[in-house]
């Protein structure tokens, strides 16, 4: 096995990423085009390394005060 290539069998398709994120596949392609989600281009198709998907998810996490605009949320 070559150095750094052990996870190649785990590459994700844009369709799989869309399923994980619960978004439309065109949204995944948009993230790739915008440079928000790193991908590998293979001919006319893309593959995403699982660690890059994890990094994308972590970079898009919000803190409670970002969601509420700094206001306290009242729970019933």
Biggest sheet, strands in spatial order? 1-2
| Tally of contiguous helical segments | 4
Give the mean pLDDT: 85
Major sheet summary line = 2 strands, antiparallel
Query: How many beta-strand segments?
Result: 2
Provide the succession of SSEs.
Answer: HHEEHH
Please provide a written account of the structure.
The protein has four helices and two strands. With 76 residues, it is mainly α. It has a domain at 8-57. It starts with 13 loop residues before the first helix and ends in an 8-residue tail after the last helix.
Task: Provide keyphrases for this structure.
42% helix, 2 strands, single chain, mainly alpha, 76 residues
In short:
The chain is mostly helical and 76 residues long.
Topology, please?
Blueprint: H1 14-21, H2 25-33, E1 40-42, E2 45-47, H3 50-59, H4 64-68
Antiparallel strand pairs: 1-2
Helix pairs in contact: 1-2
